Recover the amino acids of this structure.
């Protein structure tokens, strides 16, 4: 099987607001690309920290009005969790060495709110892959304080996923995620009827920091290596 790259991989982070309007509700969109230094398969990803400005109202608004437990997620899947526990969605693309070839697989990812852990807002991620590796993988994330120039971070422990019996673990090379109301539908009881609505998302501050909104990501890998990447979202243009 193709060997796993030994040198530290590099990563590229891109972040955007949808829409990018100060003082308004928005959806955070993340894209991360992991590139092995030798051009081969990178070592499996084991931890991911995404740091963001503390001025963003990630923990406020209407996202995650309900919660879902890991036990329920494992038993029923994402569809068995309350609709109002969904906070976003995304995908993860992995490379899998099979014989002399490297096969790619993309898994869908649901992002849900979990019960708080030690006073911190907790997230549940549920990745579903079908072929060539069938897997349904729940894992957790925590919103934690982050030192300047940020204010908070999302810390995720990424589980190892075996490819085939006796084969290496799969290697994540691309991550895409949205955190916010984009693509979400919530429900509430109004006058005896169940009514659908779009929840308010992450609240942007009314003022943009100098240089825009700064983000950073730290990636840790199974072979002990790590890498970082930075991104910024520019201040939106203003009109009188």
């Amino acid at each position: 099987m193709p060997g796993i790259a030994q040198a530290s991989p590099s990563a590229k982070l891109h972040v955007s607001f949808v829409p990018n309007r100060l003082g308004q509700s928005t959806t955070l969109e993340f894209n991360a690309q992991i590139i092995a230094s030798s051009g081969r398969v990178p070592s499996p990803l084991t931890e991911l920290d995404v740091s963001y400005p503390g001025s963003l109202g990630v923990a406020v608004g209407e996202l995650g009005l309900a919660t879902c437990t890991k036990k329920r997620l494992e038993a029923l899947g994402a569809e068995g969790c309350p609709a109002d526990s969904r906070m976003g969605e995304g995908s993860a693309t992995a490379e899998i060495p099979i014989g002399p070839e490297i096969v790619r697989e993309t898994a869908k990812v649901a992002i849900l709110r979990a019960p708080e852990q030690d006073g911190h807002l907790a997230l549940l991620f549920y990745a579903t892959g079908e072929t060539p590796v069938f897997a349904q993988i729940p894992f957790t994330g925590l919103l934690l304080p982050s030192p300047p120039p940020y204010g908070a971070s999302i810390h995720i422990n990424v589980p190892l996923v075996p490819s085939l019996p006796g084969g290496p673990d799969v290697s994540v090379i691309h991550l895409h995620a949205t955190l916010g109301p984009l693509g979400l539908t919530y429900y509430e009881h109004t006058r005896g009827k169940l009514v659908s609505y779009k929840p308010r998302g992450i609240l942007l501050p009314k003022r943009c920091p100098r240089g825009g909104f700064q983000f950073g990501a730290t990636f840790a890998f199974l072979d002990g290596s790590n890498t970082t990447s930075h991104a910024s979202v520019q201040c939106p243009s203003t009109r009188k």
The two ends are 61 Å apart (CA to CA). The first helix runs from residue 70 to 76. Residues 1-5 have pLDDT under 50 and may be disordered. DSSP finds one helix and 14 strands in the chain.
